[in-house]
Write a structure and sequence with these properties.
Layout: H1 4-24, H2 30-39, H3 51-77, E1 82-86, H4 92-105, E2 109-114, H5 117-130, E3 135-139, E4 154-158, H6 164-174, E5 179-183, H7 189-194, H8 208-229, E6 232-238, E7 249-255, H9 261-274
Parallel strand pairs: 1-2, 1-4, 2-3, 4-5
Antiparallel strand pairs: 5-7, 6-7
Helix pairs in contact: 3-4, 8-9
Bound molecules: S-adenosylmethionine.
Length: about 280
């Protein structure tokens, strides 16, 4: 037997929770986003927000706000601009940018590149179910991936592992991307190069934990300078209030010229001072 007096309270609470996410989600028709947000586990199966999913939603919206000006500039720049999301994983970034910005704009394309076939298959199915006709997915390593036409307007790489972020920079350069947004992930190459390396600044990387952190910091400084040397204006900012500080850096770059001799000089000086050469410097040849 149902007990209306007692069940009314939880029902009212569930409705309030549902409306809660709709108030946060900056879409003209949030209900059309609901199946997507459930598939991405941002909403629970019954369409509610729990503490974890509220945190995830807040982070996603924060990142969307940080990327929105560049995406809007990209949409204004051409009839069919392409945003390539590299190391896409489950493509949650691509789906959300499509749902909130690129879909409603009525133009522009999102192409997810990911090495794991299974994730690509799932993303294709989700895009078909959602009716996101201007989303495509390529199962490939970033280093070998080539877009049809050889051009991408904007490149994003969110937590692409280790040197995959460097592959994303090479991809952006060979696809002549005007905008690049990188949130680097774990990073081991430079720490490995510093191990046993004796330069005048060796105290900076003597202890393993400091070598790892200094290595990750130096890697991101070099990435920024490489982009600047290729004519990008670079802004480095906090991605979101995440607990992993070394994975909390957003490198945003916009190309204004073909090259920048001053940045190239700064990069060369830094490399001379530290004395190690990460593989990414191959793009400076
Ligand atoms: C930590 S996950 C991040 C996924 C997604 N960008 C996100 O933030 O939710 C990194 C993803 O990059 C993919 N990946 C790593 N290296 C790659 C490479 N060289 N080429 C293509 N995908 C790569 C992995 O398979 C994994 O799905």
């Amino acid at each position: 037997m149902s007990q209306p007096a007692q069940s009314a309270k939880p029902a009212a609470k569930a409705a309030a929770t549902e409306n809660d996410w709709k108030r946060l989600w900056p879409s003209a028709r949030p209900e059309t986003s609901e199946p997507l947000l459930k598939a991405l586990h941002i909403l629970t199966r019954d369409g509610a927000l729990n503490a974890d999913s509220r945190r995830k939603l807040t982070q996603v919206l924060h990142l969307t706000q940080l990327l929105r000006p560049a995406i809007e500039a990209m949409l204004a720049s051409s009839d069919d601009p392409i945003l390539a999301d590299l190391g896409a994983g489950k493509s949650y970034l691509g789906f959300i940018l499509y749902d909130l910005i690129i879909g409603p704009a009525g133009k522009g394309r999102v192409i997810g590149v990911e090495s794991r076939d299974k994730l690509i298959e799932t993303s294709r199915q989700l895009a078909a179910q959602a009716g996101y006709a201007r989303m495509d997915f390529i199962a490939a390593n970033i280093a070998e991936a080539a877009l049809p036409g050889g051009k991408a307007d904007m490149v994003t790489a969110l937590h692409a592992c280790d040197t995959a972020t460097d592959d994303a920079i090479r991809f952006a350069l060979r696809h002549d991307a005007k905008w690049v947004a990188l949130v680097p992930c774990c990073q081991a190459e430079v720490a490995r190069l510093l191990d046993g390396h004796h330069g005048p600044m060796r105290q900076l990387w003597r202890h393993p934990i400091q070598r790892r952190e200094f290595g990750a910091h130096l890697t991101n400084v070099i990435r920024g300078l490489v982009l600047e040397a290729h004519g990008y204006k670079v802004r480095v900012t906090e991605f979101t209030g995440l607990e992993h500080t070394m994975k909390n850096e957003l490198i945003l770059a916009e190309r204004h010229q073909r090259s920048n001799a001053q940045a190239r000089g700064e990069l060369n000086r830094l490399i001379d001072q530290i004395g190690v050469k990460p593989a990414l410097l191959d793009v400076m040849a």
